[in-house]
Design a protein that fits this description.
Pfam families: Rv2175c_C (PF18367), Rv2175c_wHTH (PF21531). GO terms for molecular function: DNA binding. It is a single chain. The chain contains 8 helices and 3 strands. The protein is mainly α and 126 residues long. Strand 2 and strand 3 form a beta hairpin. The longest helix has 12 residues.
């Protein structure tokens, strides 16, 4: 992927209003060591965004009320990955407002519209 394609989304702006956690903060929240967080990233249970300073960050909204990675977030990441979305495209999909939900898919994943968000992600694969 060219540098232009990698940077076609302004994730700095898109994610600026959301709380972001460093990988050590994610480890603390989950009660695991940082190397296990790397395993979760590798296994696509969550994804991280690298900011302009090179720091990998995970949105706080990836977690549920029990301080676990939301199964709906993981499911949506899996479906979008299988559809060929890059991490940048997944972040853009999750954090861009969608008037038909209403709101952003990431917010809907924490409510009664979670299954609808996943259904739409599956439909986008075709």
């Amino acid at each position: 992927m060219s540098e232009v394609e990698e940077n076609k989304y302004d994730l700095d702006e898109l994610l600026s209003g959301d709380e972001m956690l460093t990988l050590p903060e994610v480890a603390d929240r989950l009660g695991i060591v940082v190397s296990r967080v790397h395993d979760l990233l590798h296994d696509r249970k969550m994804i991280a965004w690298r900011n302009k300073d090179g720091i990998r960050l995970v949105p706080e909204l990836f977690f549920n009320a029990k301080d676990k990675v939301s199964k709906y977030v993981t499911g949506t990441i899996t479906v979008l990955t299988d559809a060929g979305y890059s991490d940048e495209e997944i972040f853009a999909h999750l954090f861009t407002a969608d008037d038909t939900l209403p709101g952003r898919p990431i917010d809907a994943l924490h409510g009664h519209l979670a299954r609808e968000v996943i259904r739409r992600a599956q439909a986008s694969a075709f």
